[in-house]
Amino acid sequence: MKKITAVFTLAGAAVGLCPTAAFAQDDLMAMEKGQLRPEVQRRYDAALALTRDASVVSANDPRYIWASEAKAQCGIALGFLKSNTRDETSLRRCGMAYAMMQRMPQTRVEPAPVAPPPAQCGVEAPGLIFFEFDSATPQDDAIQTVEYVVQNAPACNWRSFTVIGHTDRAGSNAYNQGLSQRRAEAVANLMSSRGIPAASISTDAKGEETPRVPTADGVRELQNRRVEIQVSE
Fold first, then answer.
1. pTM for this prediction
2. Phi/psi of residue 232, nearest 5 degrees
């Protein structure tokens, strides 16, 4: 059987849009901390609302991808701000994705396609699920990610799902291995509760072995406390 694998991560190039120079600059970087946090929260809330807008989700609207990116990056920025840390990378990406998600898609007139595959099957989609420190409980936005998988699985012929848990480097290797397994199982249970057959879901635990952001041992890093979903035919 032919196998295809798609790791659910966000990439701007996936939707065929490139930010202009105007979007590359954002006023977040110039804000004071007292103003910055509520503004990042506002953008996170707006992005979350857009990912729940049925008219955007069902229309194969690229704003869904950018809203999901804004939700992820603004959420990461908020996590840093809770510890009074201004993370320039996540703030810059939050600002860019927020700006891009507000762009209305242009109407294009194209020849009628011959039985095209669903557009969502051929692009990388939002699928990283982040966790609070020392927690294996999925947050509210994890439900949106899982529902995206559930809704697109039949049309995309996704039949097999691998759920991979990760941790940051705070804590012992043995503890983190178990924590990453619990995170993977929590997401797998969420998927099965939304209609994915449990027999088609497998879990894997990587502990702190494959960080998204390399850090020194003992460092807490939000982007490394995650679960990734892989799918295949």
1. 0.51
2. -155, 160
